[in-house]
Amino acid sequence: MSMDLLQEKIRQKKNPTVAGLDPRLSYIPPHILSEAYAKYGQTLRGAAEAYRLFGRGLIDALKDVVPAVKPQSAYYEVLGSAGIAVLEELCAYAKEQGLYVIMDAKRGDIGSTCEAYAAAYLGGVTVGDSTFSPFDCDAVTVNGYLGTDALRPFTALCKSRNKSIFLLVKTSNPSSRELQDLIAGDRLVSTVVADLAVRLTAKEELLGASGFSAIGAVVGATHPRDLKELRAKYPQLFFLVPGYGAQGGRAKDVQYAFDRFGHGAIVNSSRGIMCAWQKVEGNDGLDYQDRARAEALKMKKDICSYVEIL
Question: How confident is the model at residue 190 (pLDDT cuts 50, 70, 90)?
Answer without folding.
Answer: very high
